[in-house]
Amino acid sequence: MAVIRHHVGNRLSEIAIHNGTIYLAGQIAEETSQDIRGQTREVLGHIDRLLAEAGSDKSQLLSVQIYLADMNDFQGMNAVWDEWVQQGATPPRATVEAKLANPACLVEIVVVAAQRG
Fold first, then answer.
1. Angle between helices 74-84 and 36-53 in degrees, nearest 10
2. Domain limits for position 97
3. What is the separation of C-alpha 56 from the centre of its chain, rounded to a whole number of angstroms?
């Protein structure tokens, strides 16, 4: 089965799909002047859009990795996450503090999801 890629660039693809599994590149906020809540909302919006493009949605999440520039933002990020994530379909998740490539980014989220039926 072939790998299907969307938004292919020189360094990365935003989406790779193989055998019904969707892999998204790490998503960051474009508007980095926002606080952790604003950046998290924007990132989750990117994830919603990319999953829809790939034939899925947040109910199909298989795994999530969240990278925070500062663990002091954990509660603020979680407040937005809790509003967004579908109850009953919460995925396995890890959250770690990491030095992100762009110092203005407060959060980066990587997801793996299944395609819908």
1. 40
2. 4-114
3. 13
